[in-house]
Amino acid sequence: MKGLFYATSMVAMAAVITSCGNGGAKKAAADSTAMAADSNVVVLFDGTSLDGWRGYNKDTVPSAWTLEDGCIKINGSGAGEAGARNGGDLIFGAEKFGNFELSFEWKVAKGSNSGVFYMIQEVPDTPSYYSAPEYQILDNENHPDAKLGVDGNRKSASLYDMIPAKPQNSKPFGEWNTGKIMVYKGTVVHYQNGENVLEYHLWTPEWQAMLDKSKFSKDKNEKAYNLLLNCGGDQKEGYIGLQDHGDDVWYRNITVKKLD
């Protein structure tokens, strides 16, 4: 994993550090303009608009997702995962990505839960997480999910319900964390606050074995199992999305660097 971390760091773009409030939105817009000079970089969120975003299996942005001081915020309904009529998962619907490096920042309110999905296939009448691996977003100290699963595989930056993030270096609720997901020819690496916390490989016997042991196994959820087994579909690409789990969560500085 250390060798892969070194290799990918050579293509990683510098993190953009802004603050919500106190001019954070203006600085985010300026920084995103500078990054756009790199033709391989796609600015998914520039701090000023939700252009390119929409609800999963929807044509518009659900009203529970708003702009707040240069951030994307999901205003929690308290109704659980996509439980409110005006909520639901949010996807960047303007483009699908196959080999990429996704960078973002996130913070949660006390006890909050969300997730970053990648390689999403939009399937009618099917939740987004049926087809997409999840980078868990969580208040580890105050949400019950942190004590579920196996060996901490539902804590922040984990591959949800499959691989725990180690070291577990997330910051407390109310503080900003940096996240990064690298996907390259089936190899996937999660980063949290500057550290490589897990690695796995899609479309391999090991990937199938992980699914077999998870809540997405064929016995427990055959539809999700089949979609995840062929993650990314025939083109090996998909949408990037943010989860509505009914809690207050903020995201900012969301960019993708395409990898050849």
UniProtKB/TrEMBL annotation:
<dbReference type="GO" id="GO:0016787">
    <property type="term" value="F:hydrolase activity"/>
</dbReference>
<feature type="domain" description="3-keto-alpha-glucoside-1,2-lyase/3-keto-2-hydroxy-glucal hydratase">
    <location>
        <begin position="42"/>
        <end position="257"/>
    </location>
</feature>
<dbReference type="Pfam" id="PF06439">
    <property type="entry name" value="3keto-disac_hyd"/>
</dbReference>
<protein>
    <recommendedName>
        <fullName>3-keto-alpha-glucoside-1,2-lyase/3-keto-2-hydroxy-glucal hydratase domain-containing protein</fullName>
    </recommendedName>
</protein>
<dbReference type="InterPro" id="IPR010496">
    <property type="entry name" value="AL/BT2_dom"/>
</dbReference>
